[in-house]
Please model this.
Amino acid sequence: MARNDLWKTPAHEVLRAGPGFDLSTFDRRSTPGWEGSRKAADARLAARGEQMSDLQERLFANGRTGGTRSVLLVLQGLDTAGKGGIVRHVLGMVDPQGVALRSFVVPTAVEAAHNYLWRIRNALPRPGYIGVFDRSHYEDVLVVRVEELVPRAVWEPRYDEINAFEAKVAAAGTVIVKAMLMVSPEEQAARLRERLERPDKHWKYNPSDIDTRQKWPLYQEAYQAVLDRTSTDAAPWYVIPADRKWYARLAVTELLTRALKGLDLSWPVGDFDVPTELARLAASQP
Model:
């Protein structure tokens, strides 16, 4: 860590869900690892944004010239946790042509006719892209489990199936960054109230959010099971306190920047002679 770095402990270390992680004691308003102010975080975010943009362009360029690498950002969290804000404020700092966003809602009739991983597999980012899943295959061990949409005998084996699936995706060249955004019940209530009190936010409100909220303990239990059973070396979970939106955005930016840097990509080398092309350009003046 640089001497002037306000991350006392790097985000990828302090936020990773390791053995024994207990969601019930997790402070959702905390700012793990970060010793600076919100103002300092904004400055860090802007600087990281410039770096991330350069790294993303390298990834995209490599994908256009035969490269095989990609990055997948998986965002999970209850309604109001800030998934949309992450997409706008973090991914909004890079060239949108290199980002592939998918939001996984209730499966269509076609999707439901296949295995639950079918639509996920079809949405994986192509080489050169940052893929973003706003909700994901984890809905099939979260919502499906809590709402009892299928029997336990159906969803129980899915933890191991997901681990095997993600290991295969990672082995094929995709770096997987899984961010679990955890908001407190108090903050969630405040955000839902804002959606009800502001006409410009009504479009974001869904009465079913209250139904989900009334099952808070069951959802926390389901999230804990996901952390216990699917945080692997190939695709670890990072648990991010989401009550402070600025911190959540900063943390995800740090994780995504690290993933892009870890690819260690250089700019593709042209298959042409530069002096020759410069001479041709000069001779082509009308």
